[in-house]
Specification:
single chain; globular; 9 helices; six-stranded parallel beta sheet
């Protein structure tokens, strides 16, 4: 083997080791929505060998704020390595709170809100007149099951999955997470959040949202049902 060939092999191995280390040392934390779980991300594609960690949501303590809940969630995050946040709906709101004191390499939220001002009127109304407090947890979960296919008909593309994810939720968890969203007090959106939103999102209508990327025809469920344009955006940010 010639010296030139040996040097070339050394350089290639060095580049490969460096590139592999860069990917392996970065973790992507996936934050699902309120009525979903890790299956929500089944249609997303991650081209590199990132470590993927699915955030799990415990039942919030009674009276817990979204900020307090986010701090509780932060215990699932290993900050000794580089990390990226990707969150949907409630998951994006939690990420907005985590940005207050954590330093992710990137934060990407989908079908979500960065601050209270991006939430629809019904949440603001409920804060002023908290009718939800009189709704039993089981009835609230039953109401969510009934309304989901009506409010977000795109959900029927993956009907069984969405139905199963919502049915697996604890009624107390549902009521307390609803309370956290209604009483969310973040007025100023955190900077450097990449926000992907659909024009046909009926849960968080785009009219109040300042998105960095708009998906034409995208619904609140588009992470699973219309993933193709989202994957293109993720490819742009995760491969730089």
């Amino acid at each position: 083997m010639t010296i030139k060939v040996s040097i070339l092999i050394f350089i290639v191995n060095l580049w490969y080791s460096s590139n592999t280390f860069s990917q392996d040392s970065t973790t992507i934390y996936l934050f699902p929505g309120q009525g979903s779980d890790e299956r929500l991300f089944d249609s997303l594609e991650f081209k590199h060998d990132y470590k993927i960690v699915h955030i799990e949501y415990p039942i919030p303590q009674k009276g817990s704020s979204l900020a307090t809940y986010a701090k509780r969630i932060s215990k699932q995050i290993d900050t000794s390595k580089q990390y990226i946040f990707i969150g949907v709906s409630l998951g994006g709101m939690i990420i907005s709170e985590l940005q207050e004191y954590l330093k992710p390499k990137k934060s990407i939220i989908i079908s979500s809100a960065k601050s209270r001002s991006e939430l629809p009127f019904r949440y603001k109304f409920q804060k002023a007149i908290p009718l939800y407090k009189n709704v039993p947890p089981k009835l609230m979960l039953a109401g969510a099951k009934f309304l989901q296919p009506i409010v977000e008909p795109d959900r029927n593309t993956n009907k069984a999955t969405f139905k199963n994810m919502l049915s697996s939720k604890d009624p107390v968890y549902m009521k307390r997470t609803v309370a956290m969203i209604i009483n969310w007090d973040r007025e100023i959106a955190q900077e450097n959040i990449i926000h992907i939103h659909g024009t046909k999102d009926r849960t968080i209508p785009i009219r109040n949202v300042e998105a960095t990327h708009i998906i034409k025809g995208g619904s609140h469920m588009m992470t699973l049902t219309q993933a193709s344009p989202i994957n293109k955006i993720l490819l742009e940010y995760l491969n730089d």
